[in-house]
């Protein structure tokens, strides 16, 4: 049986264009064809999962915003007023907002909320604990969160998504992401950034808190130990979601720094995850680029974004879809009665 990647490349070369002339769009098509096991690949439906959760480390004054903003932003997305609502609508993504550990009581029933997107109640904790003072999650909470993420991967398959994306929402999540990656071996100076836009003194404080927290927790350099000691329920669910996509033939587009930190933990557990991951964009946050590079992922766009919520992922995913549309809808040389080159073109 012919290799899927080779077959997809032949399909692209037979379309009415110079060979390789769609550039990186062709590479995205080839990778998605390999993921789906289908030439050409197909995206009938696509869905983004925005994981919302609170982070105990916010109590150490590492963010400009109070923790109640997480809950307020959940309600904003449910009402259709957030950045992800605007961009997902414009690029035809279905939004799945996941309560993956928001502080406070359970949200009111859908009959009262009247959500304008899918609302998935999957919380295993009411926020993570403050890892400056204690481990962020118990072993049981971690395992339940990972399993919830894997369950949501199966949900994506049941919804017949040809492409998925992951977004994040939660005050303090860049601190959690940085701590996890520092524990994984990255330089703190490369990982700790301004997040929501903190000033220089606050940045120094944030860096101190993260470095000291990693020393205090001193987790083993395994994905699960890092999540337990320095992670959160929402990042653990993202990790489980990515791991759970194995063998489901669904690609996944990553958003910014917090999502990429969860992807990196998944990569530590199973390096094969890079085979079904795309980097939607390169965010403004400093630690994003080195984490992507370590996993061998090249960002699709670089727009200096740092909003989160999956906004960069849906833009990158839309570009992947444009490549798929070209691969599926362009005529071949024979269909269009156009003479192909008699000589083999050099791709450049």
UniProtKB/TrEMBL annotation:
Which EC numbers does the record give? 2.4.2.21
One protein family per Pfam: DBI_PRT
Family named by the database record: Belongs to the CobT family.
Q: Which SUPFAM superfamilies match?
A: Nicotinate mononucleotide:5,6-dimethylbenzimidazole phosphoribosyltransferase (CobT)
Task: Specify the protein name.
Answer: Nicotinate-nucleotide--dimethylbenzimidazole phosphoribosyltransferase
Output the PANTHER family linked to this UniProt entry: NICOTINATE-NUCLEOTIDE--DIMETHYLBENZIMIDAZOLE PHOSPHORIBOSYLTRANSFERASE (PTHR43463:SF1)
One molecular function GO term is:
nicotinate-nucleotide-dimethylbenzimidazole phosphoribosyltransferase activity
**Pathway it works in:** Nucleoside biosynthesis; alpha-ribazole biosynthesis; alpha-ribazole from 5,6-dimethylbenzimidazole: step 1/2
Picking any one GO biological process from the record gives: cobalamin biosynthetic process
CDD domains per UniProt? DMB-PRT_CobT (cd02439)
Keywords from the UniProt entry? Cobalamin biosynthesis, Glycosyltransferase, Transferase
Q: Which organism is it from?
A: Leadbettera azotonutricia (strain ATCC BAA-888 / DSM 13862 / ZAS-9)
Describe the reaction catalysed, as an equation: 5,6-dimethylbenzimidazole + nicotinate beta-D-ribonucleotide = alpha-ribazole 5'-phosphate + nicotinate + H(+)
| InterPro entries, per the entry | Nict_dMeBzImd_PRibTrfase, Nict_dMeBzImd_PRibTrfase_bact, Nict_dMeBzImd_PRibTrfase_N, Nict_dMeBzImd_PRibTrfase_sf
């Amino acid at each position: 049986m012919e290799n899927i990647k080779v077959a997809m490349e032949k399909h692209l070369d037979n379309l009415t264009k110079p060979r390789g002339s769609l550039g990186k769009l062709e590479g995205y098509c080839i990778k998605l064809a390999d993921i789906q096991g289908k030439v050409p690949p197909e995206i009938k439906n696509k869905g983004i999962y925005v994981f919302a959760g609170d982070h105990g480390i916010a109590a150490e004054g590492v963010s400009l915003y109070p923790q109640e903003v997480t809950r307020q932003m959940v309600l904003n997305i449910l009402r259709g007023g957030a950045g992800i609502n605007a961009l997902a609508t414009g690029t035809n993504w279905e939004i799945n907002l996941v309560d993956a550990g928001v502080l406070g009581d359970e949200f009111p029933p859908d009959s009262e909320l009247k959500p304008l997107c899918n609302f998935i109640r999957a919380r295993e904790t009411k926020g993570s604990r403050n890892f400056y003072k204690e481990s962020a999650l118990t072993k049981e909470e971690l395992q339940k969160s990972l399993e919830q993420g894997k369950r949501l991967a199966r949900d994506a398959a049941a919804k017949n998504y040809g492409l998925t994306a992951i977004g994040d929402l939660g005050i303090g999540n860049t601190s959690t992401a940085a701590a996890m990656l520092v524990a994984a071996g990255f330089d703190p100076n490369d990982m700790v950034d301004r997040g929501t836009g903190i000033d220089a003194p606050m940045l120094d404080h944030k860096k101190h808190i993260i470095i000291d927290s990693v020393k205090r927790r001193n987790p083993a350099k395994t994905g699960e130990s890092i999540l337990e000691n320095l992670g959160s329920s929402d990042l653990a669910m993202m990790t489980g979601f990515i791991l759970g996509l194995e063998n489901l033939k669904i690609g996944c587009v990553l958003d910014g720094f917090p999502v990429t930190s969860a992807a990196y933990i998944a990569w530590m557990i199973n390096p094969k995850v890079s085979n079904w991951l795309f980097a939607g964009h390169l965010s403004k946050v400093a630690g994003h680029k080195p984490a992507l590079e370590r996993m061998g992922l090249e960002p699709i766009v670089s727009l200096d974004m740092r909003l989160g919520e999956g906004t960069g992922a849906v833009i990158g995913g839309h570009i992947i879809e444009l490549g798929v549309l070209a691969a599926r809808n362009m005529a071949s040389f024979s269909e269009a009665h156009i003479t192909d080159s008699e000589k083999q073109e050099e791709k450049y």
